């Protein structure tokens, strides 16, 4: 299979862990501690004969420990968020209770941020000037400074083209927590490095495949999940070491193969398409599918508008599934 080694004993352990129950990882209280991944209960649920890494999950402990301003920095009291993707950073800093308004529709906030974020007041994607003023925010966090005008508070504008780590650092700096933010990033990096050592990540080659409604892509090292695997030291097949995504076609179909393949589905329709592909003879003739070394992950978390809180979930998923003893 394109020269990819088959480390059967290590990777097959992922299937054993997919049937384990009551695995729990929670955040600690140190201000340098990143968020936890929530409580995880796995079952034997499958899609097209591939186990789900974590089909049931409780995100009650998704956010980081509450942080305080860096020395000499004044604290913020009331935060309005005009782009809900940035709630991940607020959650990771543990100051979600300071958010008084989110410019989003009800139900549109990423569920992995847990109930303390999902319960925040939403005032619509395009709130009225009256609703914006009523929030009485002293800081307005978003990607577009013009959207902050109606709220009247100090605008903290983040460049959406930055990587997720850089965005988190910019949010932390804008909210007077630059040092705390850097400590949490450093702690996460160390957690990822140690997790990689525990699961012998450097000797695992992992493939990342996303199914669309009528398409498949191989995700590169620059994808959100790809950056977490890289931080762990997980290796990628030679055909998957570019930063960008690769569209799968007849000529490169087997480039998706690896010791272990993580698959995900962008939509329900994508799940139907992906399930069909995963039952096909061509898919099953590859090494990882042939040895039942394919696992299903949550597309929204692994490839969504991720940040440090989502990174903790991906790290937990990968650590748990790469080695059942982690």
User: Residue ranges: pLDDT <50 for 5 or more in a row?
Assistant: 1-30
User: Largest beta sheet, briefly?
Assistant: 7 strands, mixed
- How many E strands? 14
What is the terminal-to-terminal distance? Answer: 28 Å
- Assign the CATH class of the largest domain: Alpha Beta
Main-sheet strand order equals: 3-4-14-13-10-11-12
Give the H and E element order: HEEEEEEHEHHEEHHEEHEEHHHEHH
Secondary-structure content class: alpha/beta
Mean pLDDT: 89
Q: Roughly how much helix do the residues carry, as a percent range?
A: 25-40%
Question: What is the general shape?
Answer: globular
Any idea how many domains? 2
Structure overview:
It is built from twelve helices and 14 strands. The chain has 326 residues and is α/β, with parallel strands linked by helices. The chain folds into two domains: 193 residues, Nitrogenase molybdenum iron protein domain (Rossmann fold, 3-Layer(aba) Sandwich), CATH 3.40.50.1980; 98 residues, 3-Layer(aba) Sandwich (Rossmann fold). It has a seven-stranded mixed beta sheet with strand order 3-4-14-13-10-11-12, with helices on both faces. The protein has a four-stranded parallel beta sheet with strand order 7-6-8-9, with no helix packed on it. A three-stranded antiparallel beta sheet has the order 1-2-5, with no helix packed on it. Helix 5 packs antiparallel against helix 6, helix 6 runs parallel beside helix 12 and helix 7 crosses helix 12. The protein starts with 7 loop residues before the first helix and ends with a helix. InterPro entries: ABC_transptr_periplasmic_BD, Bact_iron-sidero_bind. It is found in: Cell envelope. Its main location: other. Belongs to the bacterial solute-binding protein 8 family.
């Amino acid at each position: 299979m394109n020269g990819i080694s088959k480390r059967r004993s290590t990777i097959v352990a992922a299937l054993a862990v997919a049937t384990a129950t009551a695995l729990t990882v929670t955040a600690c209280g140190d201000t340098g501690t990143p968020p936890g991944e929530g409580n995880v209960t796995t079952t034997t649920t499958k899609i097209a004969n591939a186990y789900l890494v974590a089909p049931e999950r409780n995100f009650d402990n998704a956010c980081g420990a509450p942080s305080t301003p860096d020395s000499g920095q004044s604290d913020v009291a009331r935060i309005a968020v005009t782009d809900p993707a940035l709630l991940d950073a607020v959650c990771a800093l543990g100051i979600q209770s300071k958010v008084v308004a989110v410019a989003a529709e009800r139900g549109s906030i990423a569920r992995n941020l847990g109930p303390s974020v999902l319960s925040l007041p939403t005032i619509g994607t395009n709130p009225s000037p009256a609703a914006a003023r009523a929030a009485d925010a002293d800081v307005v966090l978003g990607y577009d400074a013009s959207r902050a005008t109606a709220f009247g508070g100090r605008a903290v504008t983040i460049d959406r083209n930055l990587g997720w780590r850089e965005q988190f650092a910019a949010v932390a700096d804008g909210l007077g927590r630059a040092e705390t933010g850097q400590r949490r990033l450093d702690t996460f990096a160390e957690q990822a490095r140690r997790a990689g050592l525990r699961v012998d990540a450097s000797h695992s080659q992992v493939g990342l495949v996303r199914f669309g409604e009528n398409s498949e892509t191989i995700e590169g090292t620059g994808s959100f999940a790809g950056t977490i695997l890289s931080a762990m030291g997980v290796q990628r097949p030679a055909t998957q070491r570019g930063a960008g995504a690769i569209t799968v076609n007849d000529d490169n179909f087997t480039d998706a193969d690896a010791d272990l393949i993580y698959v995900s589905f962008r939509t329900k329709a994508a799940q139907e398409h992906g399930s069909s592909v995963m039952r096909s003879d061509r898919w099953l003739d590859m090494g990882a599918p042939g040895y039942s070394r394919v696992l299903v992950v949550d597309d929204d978390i692994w490839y969504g508008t991720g940040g440090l809180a989502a990174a903790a979930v991906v790290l937990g998923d990968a650590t748990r599934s790469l080695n059942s003893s982690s």
